[in-house]
Amino acid sequence: MDRRLIRYVLNWLLLAAAVVVIVTGVVVDRLDLNDFTPHRWAGYAVAVLIALHVGLRWRAFLPTRRAGPPRREPAATRAGDAPELSGEPADAQSPVEPGVGARGAGRPASAGAGEGRSHPTRRTAIAAVGAGMAGVAVGWTAKSAVSPDPYPGGDVGLFYHRQSSLGLRGLVGGVVEWGRRPAPYLQVGDGPSIPLPLPDAVPTMSVAQALQQRRSLRDYADRPMTAEELAWVVHGATGITQAQAGLRTAPSAGALYPLETYVAVSRVEGVEAGLYHVDVRGRALEPMRTGSVAGELMVAGLGQDFLRTAPVVLILTGLFQRSRWKYRERHYRYVCWEGGHMTQNVHLAAEAAGLGACMVGAFLDARVNDLLGVDGRHEAALGLIALGPR
Questions:
Q1: What angle do CA 108, 112, 117 make, to 5 degrees?
Q2: CA distance 112 to 92
Q3: Closest by alpha carbon to 36, among 27, 44, 48, 45?
Q4: Which tens digits make up the pLDDT trace of 149-188?
Q5: What percentage of the chain exceeds 90 in pLDDT?
Q6: pLDDT averaged over the chain?
């Protein structure tokens, strides 16, 4: 294959890979992602293409001695002078060297054979500087566009905060119909539940030590979790601690408990890989789907690879009407607060058991909702928590 064609294709591939690196880098910066698979593999592709590019043009990277000024040729051989009267055509006096086209035929021989460049051409340098300036401009513009001022009129967060503030409308509950109270427990599926075992021994680590040591963990040991470890963490998230009143480990506004917990199992001893719903009253897992869904969670989590490698991923959803019927427009704040309480419980319970956890907020809501079979309105995914051994 022609080397010029190879270089041409390689240049376009390198440009495309660089664009992907820039775009995914903006996504990483905007969403504060960790272990973003598309960005990492795009970086690998750029590194490989650069190595190939250097390999094809390695001579251009070697230092070369700049040739001196070309020697002056005899007047009779310069272009425009009359040739000697030998009967031969003028072209025969200065044959074109092999590989030199018509444009280079009039150049001195030393310009093509002896002179080598030790620096890029002016056009290449200008193009490189221009590309760098364009990259800076694009990055600055993109960051300004996706990170708007927190108080413009169209800020959805500010709109939500104002709409959920207490006022006369919220205090006078009879004026607006907010619906009825739904059932406090959710049952999913018709198959037999899988009881979660009681732990052989409750972890003895103090709360102070767990708080001191807690860190988000994204790299997990190469072993499956045990069913006892899973049961302990699920209990820490949403276990019932007072059966008569139904009170649980995490606080909830009005003890309404609007959150539901789903478990995506990939590697747990004694539990088949699949998707489950936590039966809080029965301390069991209700099967929803067999087979690992780790790959789908990674895609839904914008390519964050630790969602695929984690033995367990907890998925928290909100059943908003459980709080909405009582707290009206204020309910959404309470549901989100409860999600924070449960997540911290999971982190501390995991730390005490020698596990690690990582909360994930960057995910495609529609994909996770579809995976769970919820409508995204009455019940919707609020967050993912990856779990695994240290």
A1: 125
A2: 19
A3: 27
A4: 544 555 777 777 777 777 665 555 555 668 888 888 898 8
A5: 48
A6: 81
Token reading at 131: 């590309």
Q: What is the CA radius of gyration of the chain?
A: 34
The full set of domain ranges for the chain reads: 1-60, 181-389
Tell me how crowded residue 223 is: count the other CB atoms within 10 A of its CB: 11
Helix boundaries (H) for 32-121: 37-56, 109-113
Whole-number Å distance between alpha carbons of 258 and 276: 18
Residue 276 to residue 197: CA distance in whole angstroms: 16
Helix or strand (DSSP H, E) at 125 = helix 122-146
Cβ 382 vs Cβ 336: under 8 Å: yes
**Bridge partners (DSSP) listed for residue 247:** 242
Does 117 score more than 90 pLDDT?
A: no
Please identify, in words, the CATH class of the domain defined by 181-389: alpha beta
Nearest to 237 by CA among 99, 382, 67, 131: 382
73-92 per-residue burial string, b: 16 or more CB within 10 A, e: under 16: eeeeeeeeeeeeeeeeeeee
pLDDT of residue 36: 75
The Cα angle at residue 154 between residues 150 and 156, in degrees rounded to 5 = 70
